[in-house]
Design a protein that fits this description.
The chain has a four-stranded antiparallel sheet with strand order 1-2-3-4, with no helix packed on it. Helix content is about 20%, strand content about 50%. The relative contact order is 0.16. It has a single domain, classed as Roll (Transcriptional Co-activator pc4, Chain A).
Amino acid sequence: MTLHEVNISETTKILITKDTVNDKTFGQIRVWTKPKDKEEFIPTKKGLAFDLGITGDIVQGLLELEDHKGEA
């Protein structure tokens, strides 16, 4: 289930999803690309899958990153 989409360009986006495979539910943050010869986006290996129990820690880290975005 796609929860959020971040468009990077016409051919690249980041999807935040909640997925279930083999009765295991987890979150993913993954880069998707659109090949030149295709109409649909496909997932790449760039990204991560994580246990939903650490979602808050990931969000906290991203918020801290945002707080420091103007720093070198």
